[in-house]
Amino acid sequence: MTKLMISVIGASKATPREFRLAEQTGKAIADADCVLVCGGLSGVMEGAAKGSTEAGGFSVGILPQSDKSQANPHLSIALPTGLGHMRNYLVASAADGVIAIGGAAGTLSEIGMALTLGRPLVLLESLDVDATGLNGAGTFRAAAPNEAVKLLLGILRKK
Questions:
Q1: Long-range contacts of the stretch 149-155 (C-beta < 8 A, 24+)
Q2: 132 pLDDT higher than 70
């Protein structure tokens, strides 16, 4: 059986709090024996990869560039795509479920793609999608990293 893959999405310019949340989320993903998928750059992506790697987990970064030079140093595998922001689709589609931490416009695009693809999405201090009507359509909220991972795994295991 293949391992569950969880994407962590969020801003490349994370606040210190968002970085810590991402780091704790990456650790929780590794502790759950799941594979972390992220955009492979800085900010939330780097925090999640760092937490995963330090906990002995496996992290995959799907890079927008066509080379690995800007990949964060905590990735197990860096996949250069040369797709720019279009790689956001790959980050959303590669995972069984998605956790969003903080974020900006790129994160919003990944949220939309995850929901369009039917991937369950857990918001952890992320963008407020209430006004869009997307809550209740596969979107959930968590207050802490361990809770976000546990909630997402519960949803995925019911499928």
A1: 149/6, 149/25, 149/28, 149/29, 149/32, 149/34, 149/99, 150/28, 151/122, 152/6, 152/97, 152/99, 152/120, 152/122, 153/4, 153/32, 153/34, 153/97, 155/97, 155/120
A2: no
